[in-house]
Amino acid sequence: MDLIKTKGEIEIMREGGHILALILSDARNYAGPGMSTKDIDKYVGRLCLKHRVKPAFYGYQGYEANICTSINDEIVHGIPSSKKILKKGDLLSLDFGVLHKGFNTDAAITFGIGEIGKTKQKLIEAAEKSFFKGVKKVKAGARLGDVSYEIQKYIESKGFSVIRSLAGHGIGREIHEAPTITNFGKKGTGLILKEGMTLAIEPMLAEKKHDIKLDADGWTYRTVDGGMSSHFEHTIAVTKNGYEILTN
Length: 248
Ligand code: MF3
Ligand code: CO
Known about the structure:
Blueprint (H helix, E strand, L loop, with lengths): L6 H24 L6 H15 L2 E2 L11 E5 L2 E3 L14 E10 L2 E10 L5 H18 L8 H14 L3 E2 L5 E3 L6 E5 L16 E4 L2 E3 L5 E3 L6 E3 L5 E3 L2 E5 L4 E3 L3
Helix pairs in contact: 1-2, 3-4
Bound molecules: 2-amino-4-trifluoromethylsulfanyl-butyric acid and cobalt (II) ion.
């Protein structure tokens, strides 16, 4: 798998990533108390048809939904269900991928359903800000460990913990390509970034301990101690002097 994408390939990912961002933002506005996560999934399915893109996660290792919907202590890969009803005060993350002209893009947001408490608000902010702290280190010649280090430092400075056993990844023709991008690490270590690499950087954090467990459904990861969790993700391209967010 070639980690370096051509200008033309990145242009396709920019196009797909833009559509992804529109759909994710519509889904966020649509989500509200009383609705099931399956309702959101169906809505996203309709938007994919409208924009003529494929939901990238559908069929991935047998996954049977358009989007991942993870509530409160669920970290990632929550499966939409008509039995999961959103209520005021819930913390919801939506993780969504688009397949467009043979290339994938991947992004995630976390937000509150109605008004949420202070800790949940802080978790949302920490996920977003840690992403931007990390991505600021991205440019040709930088090392992946510099990115991971900044993400970890920010999350821990807010008193939260970094999920260890889930990570970001390279992305392109496949959803998950090399390299693995952990949200913890050491400065000056790891892969040297090159112009044209496309990466999904995705901090996942927990309010309390970072230990995770997998539900009986085989997909949903949640915290062991029941602490709340947040997630934020963009697909980016490495440029000569920095980065470009493709899922904007
Ligand atoms: N965005 C997810 C990740 O990077 C991909 C989810 S695939 C699915 O891990 F099948 F779980 F939806
Ligand atoms: Co991802």
